Amino acid sequence: MKKIKKEIEILKNNGINSLVNFNESTYTNSRGKTYPCFSLNRDGMLQMLNSESALVRYKTIEYINKLEQQNNPMQQYLNMSEEDRAIAYFQQRKEIKMLELENKQKDQVIGELKPKADYTDVILKSVDALTITQIAKDYGLSGQTMNKTLHDLGVQYKQSGQWLLYSKYQSCGYTKSDTYKYENNNGEVRTKINTKWTQKGRLFLYNLLKENDILPLIEKVQEAA
Q1: pLDDT truncated to tens, each residue of the chain (225 aa)?
Q2: Domain coordinates of the chain in residue numbers?
Q3: Is there a contact between 142 and 132 (Cβ–Cβ < 8 Å)?
């Protein structure tokens, strides 16, 4: 909604009538709640792709071309009610966003499988991997605060409620992730990853945090003594 409103404002400021491609409308979800939305024609959809990622642009254009090849259902799409058209558009964007997230999850899991054992791995070899909340307790912090700290230090980023490592750290053997399926409020099956830190990752975090004057509680006690 915000992106479309901004697009309309830019066009308006340049003396262009945006109502041709964007029409204000509403839609009702499966629970009977009504929400504002915009109805986009083909040109409107293509115009909005400029602000999306390469994957979103590719998949949406692929979807439009597929519609046009199947007995011209693109025309059927244009003949839909504004409500149905809005639902179809946002459902497509939702599916693409989920695909992007799943690809990034796979990148992290693949990266964790790549590194070969080195001397550090042998020394720190352990069957136990720890959650970020467990590690955070050693520093007197909450898991949420520790996650934010690691984000500020450029280790990880958050997408769709999940913390994922930046690519430079994915192949270092710092984490071990399990992928599991869950059912959302709409009854749709989705996937999430449960990431734990290996002993090698724990040592990496210790050194990184220490460089930034963040010490575990046991070392703070030793300094105070």
Answers
A1: 667 677 767 767 777 766 666 677 776 766 777 777 766 666 666 666 666 666 666 676 677 677 666 555 455 555 566 666 666 667 767 776 777 777 777 777 666 655 554 434 543 555 678 899 988 998 999 999 999 999 999 999 998 788 899 999 998 989 988 777 888 888 888 888 788 998 889 889 988 998 999 988 887 766 555
A2: 2-99, 114-224
A3: no
> Which of 25, 44, 4 minimizes the C-alpha distance to 87?
25
Report the predicted TM-score, pTM, of the whole model to 2 decimal places. 0.48
Distance CA 167, CA 172 (A): 10
Instruction: State residue 32 phi and psi, 5-degree precision.
Output: 85, 10
Angle (nearest 5°) at CA 73 between 59 and 55: 5
Q: How many other C-beta atoms are found inside a 10 Å radius of the C-beta of residue 52?
A: 17
* Three-class DSSP category at 35: strand
Whole-angstrom Cα distance, residue 145 to residue 104?
A: 23
Q: Contact 108/165 with Cβ under 8 angstroms?
A: yes
Residues 62 and 153: their CA atoms lie apart, in Å, by 38
């399926």: which residue's tokens? 181
Buried b / exposed e along 151-167 (16+ C-beta atoms within 10 A)? eeeebbeeeeebbbbee
- Nearest C-alpha neighbor of 147 from the set 179, 175, 110: 175
